[in-house]
Design a protein that fits this description.
InterPro entries: Flavin_Rdtase-like_dom, NADH-dep_flavin_reductase, Split_barrel_FMN-bd. This is Flavin reductase family protein. With 195 residues, this protein is of the alpha+beta class. The protein has one domain: Electron Transport, Fmn-binding Protein, Chain A (Pnp Oxidase, Chain A), CATH 2.30.110. The strands form 3 sheets. Strands 4-3-7-10-11-6-5 form a 7-stranded antiparallel beta sheet. Strands 1-13-12-2 form a 4-stranded antiparallel beta sheet, with no helix packed on it. The protein has a two-stranded antiparallel sheet with strand order 8-9. Bound molecules: flavin-adenine dinucleotide. The site of flavin-adenine dinucleotide has 25 residues, from strand 4, strand 6, helix 2 and helix 3.
């Protein structure tokens, strides 16, 4: 895969020890579970989990919703998963963010799967972009989506599961469209693409 810009801020990145194999076995791990782990292992676990799971390459999406009072809101997310084909369910994993405050009101969200040439869109909706023009939206089934995306998936929120410091928003798919093209990918804290 080819490498492009690395993100800063709160996005997954490479650790100083990236490239060296790192042990995934916690010191002093016993059948007693997490309580037996050392304080150091526990305090470094979030960073190391980001680094480890950052090696799981993903696509990049923009989640959108529309609120009567506030209009369209969008955010970049790669914590997106196909959960079930019948019934058709997907999930989006959200941390503390504005989207998570708006979704209980709208009860619906759209997933735009970004194409290789939409890195600037991903940066913008992650709050890290420098767009000079406001992004346009296209509407389908009453939900806004990003034009130029490879797929549009519209969902009604069917279930909500708090999970640690995130919440899993399970959506029942109401409509979907897709086209062929190269995807935008995210790997080890960087946007990239197919080789
Ligand atoms: C590759 C990647 C994957 C990520 N995956 C996840 C994930 O799975 N889960 C997670 O919780 N976080 C994820 N994030 C982080 C997340 O994108 C940011 O924390 C984001 O800022 C959260 O958005 P928000 O809802 O809090 O809204 P804001 O931070 O308020 O909005 C995000 C940005 O979108 C712009 N924006 C929103 N609506 C509009 C509009 N209608 N018109 C124009 N601009 C608009 C805002 O101006 C802002 O710049 C990811 C970030 C990256 C880079």
């Amino acid at each position: 895969m080819k490498r492009t810009a690395q993100l800063g801020g709160g996005t997954p990145g490479r650790s100083r020890t990236a490239g060296r194999a790192r042990s995934g076995t916690p010191p002093n791990a016993t059948t007693a579970g997490m309580a037996a782990l050392t304080p150091t292992w526990r305090s470094t676990a979030p960073r190391r989990l980001r680094d480890a799971m950052g090696r799981f390459a993903t696509g990049v999406t923009v989640i959108t919703t529309a609120d009567e009072g506030e209009g369209v809101h969008g955010m970049t997310a790669n914590g997106v998963l196909s959960v079930s084909l019948d019934p058709p369910l997907v999930l989006v994993s959200l941390g503390r963010c504005r989207m998570a405050e708006i979704l209980p009101r709208t009860g619906r969200y759209g997933i735009s799967v970004l194409a290789a040439d939409q890195q600037d869109v991903a940066m913008h909706f992650a709050g890290q972009g420098h767009r000079t023009t406001a992004p346009a939206f296209t509407w389908d089934g009453g939900l806004p989506f990003l034009p130029g995306a490879l797929a549009h998936i519209g969902c009604r929120v069917a279930d909500v599961h708090p999970a640690g410091d995130h919440v899993l928003w399970i959506g029942r798919v109401k409509h979907m469209t897709h086209r062929d093209g190269d995807p935008l990918l995210f790997y080890a804290g960087r946007f990239t693409g197919l080789a």
